[in-house]
Every structure is written in structure tokens, then in C-alpha cells.
Amino acid sequence: MSAAPHPVIGVDWGTSNVRAYLIDGAGTVHDRRAAPKGILAVEAGGFEAVLQELVGDWISSMPATPVILSGMIGSRQGWREAPYVETPAGIAEVGAKLLPLELASGKRAWIVPGLAQRDGGAPDVMRGEETQIFGALAHEARGRYLFCLPGTHSKWVETEDGRIIRFATHMTGEVFGLLTRHSILGRMMEGETADKDRFAAGLDRAADAGGLLHHLFSVRTRRLFDEIPATGARSYLSGILIGHEVSAALGAHKPEGTVALLGEPELAALYATALTRRGIATKTLAETSARGLWRIAGSLPAAGG
Amino acid sequence: MSAAPHPVIGVDWGTSNVRAYLIDGAGTVHDRRAAPKGILAVEAGGFEAVLQELVGDWISSMPATPVILSGMIGSRQGWREAPYVETPAGIAEVGAKLLPLELASGKRAWIVPGLAQRDGGAPDVMRGEETQIFGALAHEARGRYLFCLPGTHSKWVETEDGRIIRFATHMTGEVFGLLTRHSILGRMMEGETADKDRFAAGLDRAADAGGLLHHLFSVRTRRLFDEIPATGARSYLSGILIGHEVSAALGAHKPEGTVALLGEPELAALYATALTRRGIATKTLAETSARGLWRIAGSLPAAGG
What we know:
The structure is a homodimer. By secondary structure, chain A is of the alpha/beta class. The two termini of chain A are 21 Å apart. In chain A, a hairpin with a 5-residue loop joins strand 2 and strand 3. Chain A is built from 9 helices and 14 strands. In chain A, helix 3 packs across helix 9 and helix 7 crosses helix 8. Helices cover 35% and strands 22% of the residues of chain A. Chains A and B meet through strand 12, helix 4, helix 6 and helix 7 of A and strand 12, helix 4, helix 6, helix 7 and helix 8 of B.
């Protein structure tokens, strides 16, 4: 099994945030730091300064410890573009394609490549979620698993014997944001309080015939006829969208057992509700990026380059 | 058959525009005017001034001619709220519920009520489309017809023997606008030129398994891998959305014959393409609001109140 026999400085660098972990040779996180300096908040050429500011003291005090970065930092809009590795892919395939970066100090850092799936009706891609999945799989690589990583662009990921074999992205979170902020539906909402009953009503609506584009309009009409309160409209819309995502994903991925949810706890709980109502068992996992980074770093020489 | 045996000043007053027609006793339009003064462009209390500015000369020179208004002007955000008539409803039901308005001159005007459908999984509503449908039905009221009125909020409307029996709204146009203007997909598009091949590719994508929220992401991935050009991404997205709407609507409404398209010609042509590829014949109708207003005005006394 891949795993770093040495300490690692792991960095999960996404669109909105950067999170750093100081991990020992046994995979235990000893320190962690975060900043709202995702790649969209950093100008081109500014990434090394952000890294130094966040963990420069770790890097200089442990010169032999490898630095490994995952997420959108390896995209075209990030520090340097790391070409995608095609599915099916496990730790070995991803570890073999780590992209080296020379830091100003002469030290080398490594960017984890994202995954691309090119064998379906249209391509699909991920950057960072592969690392979370490898972290989640650390103790149970054998067999088939289905993961759901809800978010702006939710991912549904099938694994077999420790490798990612198939995945799909759903733009649920982004569409929810657009509709609440910019559409006629947003004007019918008040507050951001979660309303469990209206979320369930949205899940029910999603199970009707008629299609998503039709169901969305029921946010408006149910407000017009006072069937839902303004304070429940946001949760009702959330139920419609998550209900459609979950139905489509279950049709495509057909889980054999429990679906593992990986994400922000409040959002994961909504997906757990949607899945449970469909008769699917779920478990929710804690943050797994650090362990994923540590496992991938096992492909590096002990000196970290 | 309902029809005004007298001239009518008909006004189709929507969200963005107002269109007025001077119609003779035989239903022929003699003059027409329009202004970008939809209800969102007029402050509360300002509707009568807009009406006077647009057709004040018609009103004063033909004092006995009734003025009849359809569309969002009868909504809560319009001039005065005209309660919905419930489906099934034909000219008779709508004509019996015309809402009278006293103008400053002492003359009376009438607002056509919208329709509400309350018997399904969630309510649905229309304002203005019922008038277009009644105009389209003028010469062929017997039998069953399916109409599609594409737009910001597309309507699919089933009629039987001249009455609207069932309808559904799809938020396709609004979602398209949100995604092109505000989402990550919009950043991958250039220009607004129609690209027929990419529109067809979007229709094909919509026919795949996986669901709309997943298919949307393929705009991003196909641009990432240069499978579509930036100038074709807009049409590809349009094909995905219209393809999903048409599939859902055909599932719900099951047309027995030709689908009649009523809308802006360029948009109607896209729906015709989508329907034809599904083996459904279409015909596209010219603007029918004026004839609908004239037919509904047949319920009024000749003196117009």
C-alpha cells in the first residue's frame, strides 16, 4: 500500500480556500492552517508568496520534508497546469504524474494531477476530489464504493479496489446559487434558515414527472398561493435540485451498498436525507484531504526531491 | 363562437413590452403600436399615463370602443390584480371574469384574468398566454391541440374543443440567461452567433442518461478539451436546455399530432428543430394576441361599458 514513510507538508488548494497540513510519517496531522486565498483570490505569479506566508516556517524548519499540493492549483488558472490522468486511476497512476515545481529556495514542490474521464458521452474532470477519495479509501481499498462529494460542482465517484473507475459532475450548487441570487425565484425568498419540511417537499416535487425546468417554477407558484412561506422557499428549491441530482446519480451509478458522503457537514446532511428517502444507506466522512496527500506523497523519494 | 362584433382596442402588456392593436369588428388589425414599457419599466400608479401616451388618441377618437388588456398587467405587480380563472377554461370562463378598471376619463377598460391550474402536484399559472392561445384557436377550436410558447418561462398548453385543459411552465429561458451571464459556463463562451451543429450536439447530450445538472458541466469540459469552439458553446448550452425541456414536455403532454409553436421566430425555430428530431411535426404561428383580445372582447357589451 502507498503511504509516505516520512513527514509531508500537504496543501489542499481550491478555488476559494487554501488549507495546509503538517503530517508525520504515520499519517497523523500535527498542525493545520487555512486562508481564504483560493486560486481566484491570488493573481498570477502570486502563489509562491501565499505558500510562504502560510507555511514558510514549516518549509524552512524541515528542509527534507516534501511539499505536495492538490486541487485547482494545478489547473490552467492555478500555479502551473498539471495534465489530467485518465480514469481508471489509483494512487500509483496519480503518483507517477506528480508535477514538480521549483520553489525560489531551490526546494521542489509537487502538484497532484487531476483526473479526466474521456470514455463517456462527454468528458468529465476533477481536481482535488481524487485526493479526498484516496484519503477516504486508506483503510478499505478492496471492493466497490460510491462516493458523493456535494458542493458547487458535486462529484459522484465510483471506486473499485482502490482506483477511481468512473465519476460524474453535477452543477447543483452553482445552479442553486444562481437561482437564489439572480432569478425571479430569489425574490420570493426570505432568510437562510433551513426548513426541513420544505426541503422534503422539494425532494417530493423532484420525484414527480415534468422535469427540473418545470419543477423550478413551482417555487414561484407555491409562493403565489401561499403553499410555502417565504422563509421556506430556499429549502424547497434546495430539495428540488438535490432531489434531481440524487435521482440522476442513482440511475447512473447504481450503488450496491452505502454511499459515502464527503463534504461540508450541513450540506452532507441534506444529501443523506435525500438518499435515505430513496432507501440508500449513507455514512458521512470527516475531512480526508490530508490523508490523501500523505498517501500520494508515498510515491515520492524520502528526500522529497 | 365568441368574437367581438365591434371594434376593440387590444393591449398585450407583458413584463418587458406593451403592444397595442386597433382591431375592427371583423377582427382585422388596422393599426399597431409598441413601447418598451412592460410592467417592470413602469412605477406603480404610472400605468394609465403609459396607456394614454401609447393609444390616448385612439381612445378619445373612439369613445365607444372597449379597451381590453392582457398579460402581466393583471398581476400583483401590474395595474390591478385580476384573480386567476382555474382550468379547464375557455373564452366563456375568461370573458366572464374580465376585471373592470375606471380610467380618469370615466371610460372603462378591462383586464383579462390569467389562468391557474390547481389540480396537479403543484400549481401553475399563466398571464397573457391564454389570450395568445384563444387567438390561435379562432379557426379550429374542435379537437385536441398542443401548443408550445417558448420564452423566459416557456409554456406547454393542451386544449380540447377550444378550452385550455392543462399546461406547464418551464423556466428554460431564465436558466439559460443565468448560466450565460453569471455562471462559470458563461466565461467559456464567445459571441451570440447561432451554431446549428453545436445546438444539435446539445440536443444529443440532453438525450443521454445522467440528468440536466450533469449535462450542463459538459459545456465546461468540452471547452477544456476543445471539442467545441468558444463561439459554439452558447448554442451547445441552448441545445442541452431545450432538449431537456422538450423531452420532459413530450413525456407529460404526449401530443397526438402537430405541435403548434407560438413565439419569437428565431427561438421557435430552435424548438422546431428539437421536436422534429424527436419525430414530432410542428407548425409555427404568427402573433395571435390581437385576435385573442378581439375574441375575448366578444364577451363585453357593444358599448364597452
